[in-house]
Amino acid sequence: MRHVAPFRATSYPVTAYIGRRLLQMIPMMLGISLVLFAIIQATPGGPEAALLGTGRAVDPQALAAYRHRMGVDEPVPVQYVRWLTAALSGDLGESFSTGRPVSRMILERLPATLELMGAAFLIAVLAALALGIFSAVRQYSAFDFLGTGFSFLGIAMPVFWFALILQLVFGVWLRWLPISGRETVGVATLADHLKHLILPASVLSLRYIAGWSRYLRSSLLGALRADYVRTARAKGLPERTVVGVHAVRNALIPVVSVMALNLADLFSGAVITETVFAWPGIGRMFVTAMYARDYNVLMGILLMGSLMVLVFNLVADVVYGILDPRIRYG
């Protein structure tokens, strides 16, 4: 039988593993940046599309001067090298639309997006844990069937449609909650801020509540039938201890990995949610930059999203090792 080392003996290998993974991210980010830059440059239009889209005649010399000023008149490889050189020093260029530094624009919008993602993640974790555990413990009960129906509904329901329904019900009909923005103008209170956060965070968390609760239910049902759970019950341990301490911890191992991987998906989901609720975050800025063909802003946001995917993958691997003492990093 294969010997499994205890997790406490792997503290140094875990540190080395994290360092190795961080080093691996450098060439991966370079490759991702190259692919993203090529795709963005291959899209129709450009920064001058806003001028041409007005329907007015534009002087070719003025158009050429505009392209030169924006730095898009050179070959794509030259543009990429110039952009990469500046990006390595933290300069992501200037926005074609506003003329402001892209890095500063992202940093200004990042707190709002992280706040929305954090609130949605917290709601999804708490709701999925409660729904998944009760559904597994009370298998085939009325609560289990209702939870299953809710999960199917949450997975199948379009995010934008659900957002519009909540706006209509709670914002227009009942007038309980605001339907747009991050705060009421002139009202800088915590209560007002939380009221603005409830609807977008609930919308963003819906699909994750549905998926994570199903993962947890399935994993916990398997854990409850395991031999170690039977042994714990045979020892006379209370059912709450058997489920909460022994079964749930092991059932959470695959679920937490899925949660960590889905953290990056929260960012893409925030694009739609922020747009519908006029939430002043990066997702809304991405949509605005896309319509304006603002290459530098699009590049900066996509690159940040790619970095989030790599980081959260690393978090998932580390958390998996914390929950499962058998995991060893070499």
Question: If you had to describe this structure to a student in words, what would you say it looks like?
Answer:
By secondary structure, this protein is mainly α. The chain has a single domain, classed as MetI-like (MetI-like fold). The chain contains twelve helices and no strands. α6 packs across α8 (190-224), α7 (159-173) crosses α8 and α10 runs antiparallel to α12 (295-323). The radius of gyration is 25 Å and the shape is globular. Mean pLDDT is 83; it is low at 1-11.
Please tell me the overall pLDDT: 83
Proportion of strand residues: under 5%
What is the name of the CATH class? Mainly Alpha
Distance between the termini: 20 Å
Main β-sheet description: none
Poorly predicted regions: 1-11
Q: Classify the secondary structure makeup into a structural class.
A: mainly alpha
Number of extended strands: 0
CATH topology: MetI-like fold
Number of helices: 12
Helix content, binned percent: over 70%
Q: What's the SSE pattern? A: HHHHHHHHHHHH
User: How would you sum up the global shape?
Assistant: globular
Radius of gyration: 25 Å
The CATH homologous superfamily: MetI-like
Write a concise synopsis of the structure shown.
The protein is mainly α and 330 residues long.
SSE topology:
Elements: H1 11-42, H2 49-52, H3 60-70, H4 76-87, H5 102-137, H6 142-156, H7 159-173, H8 190-224, H9 227-234, H10 239-276, H11 282-292, H12 295-323
Helix pairs in contact: 1-12, 5-6, 5-8, 5-10, 5-12, 6-8, 7-8, 7-10, 8-10, 9-10, 10-11, 10-12, 11-12
